[in-house]
């Protein structure tokens, strides 16, 4: 299987352009969980049109603080995972673009398979976003959670929708 410059890189770019972001991290490093165990090599599959399509491989490297680096052909992508309960985990990734900041996704599991759900701002219930003080930026199709008081409660309430990617341990 080929190694790609990681569709997760593209996914995280999507987080920056059409998803839920913050300027500063909303979850403390001390609350990070090892959602991917010791890390390792994964085959990456993109979900589109009701089917999964192979996209290459992804290496997740566990760091001493419990966070990970997704290793790509470019720069490593720092990401930490935080348990929300009920089988949901939120991923907080450092977005390395001109705007900086952090992007968020929901991670779910089925046996050893890991599913990444990239939350689209325009697909979220407006009343729910307003109740949690989310700033919707329609012109950029982004949601800023900088003013959100309890991000864990917000992410637990958001519908994850269909997965965007599936990671299968190799």
Question: Which features would summarize this protein structure in a list?
Answer:
170 residues; mainly beta; 8-stranded antiparallel β-barrel; 3 helices; globular
List strands and helices in order, with pairings.
Blueprint: H1 7-18, E1 20-22, E2 39-48, E3 51-62, E4 68-71, E5 77-85, E6 88-94, E7 102-110, E8 113-118, H2 126-131, E9 135-137, E10 142-144, H3 151-157, E11 165-169
Parallel strand pairs: 1-10
Antiparallel strand pairs: 1-7, 2-3, 2-11, 3-4, 4-5, 5-6, 6-7, 7-8, 8-11, 9-10
Strand order, largest beta sheet: 2-3-4-5-6-7-8-11
**What ranges have pLDDT less than 50 throughout 5 or more consecutive residues?**
1-6
| Number of helices, where a helix is a run of at least 4 consecutive DSSP H or I residues | 3
> What is the helix fraction of residues, given as a range?
10-25%
The fraction of residues in strands falls at: 35-45%
Write up what this structure looks like.
With 170 residues, this protein is mainly beta. The protein is 15% helix and 42% strand. It has one domain (7-169). It is built from 3 helices and 11 strands. An 8-stranded antiparallel β-barrel has the order 2-3-4-5-6-7-8-11. β4 and β5 form a beta hairpin. Mean pLDDT is 85; it is low at 1-6.
């Amino acid at each position: 299987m080929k190694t790609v410059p990681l569709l997760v890189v593209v996914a995280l770019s999507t987080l920056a352009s059409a998803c839920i972001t913050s300027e500063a991290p909303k979850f403390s490093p001390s609350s990070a969980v090892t959602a991917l165990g010791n890390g390792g090599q994964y085959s990456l599959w993109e979900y589109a049109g009701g089917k999964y399509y192979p996209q290459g491989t992804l290496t997740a490297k566990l760091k001493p603080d419990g966070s990970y680096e997704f290793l790509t052909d470019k720069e490593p992508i720092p990401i930490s995972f935080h348990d929300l309960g009920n089988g949901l985990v939120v991923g907080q990734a450092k977005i390395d673009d001109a705007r900086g900041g952090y992007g968020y996704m929901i991670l779910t599991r089925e046996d050893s398979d890991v599913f990444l759900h990239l939350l689209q701002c325009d697909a979220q219930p407006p009343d729910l976003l307003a109740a949690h003080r989310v700033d919707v930026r329609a012109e950029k199709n982004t949601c800023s959670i900088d003013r959100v008081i309890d991000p864990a409660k917000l992410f637990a309430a958001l519908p994850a929708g269909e997965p965007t990617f599936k990671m299968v341990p190799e």
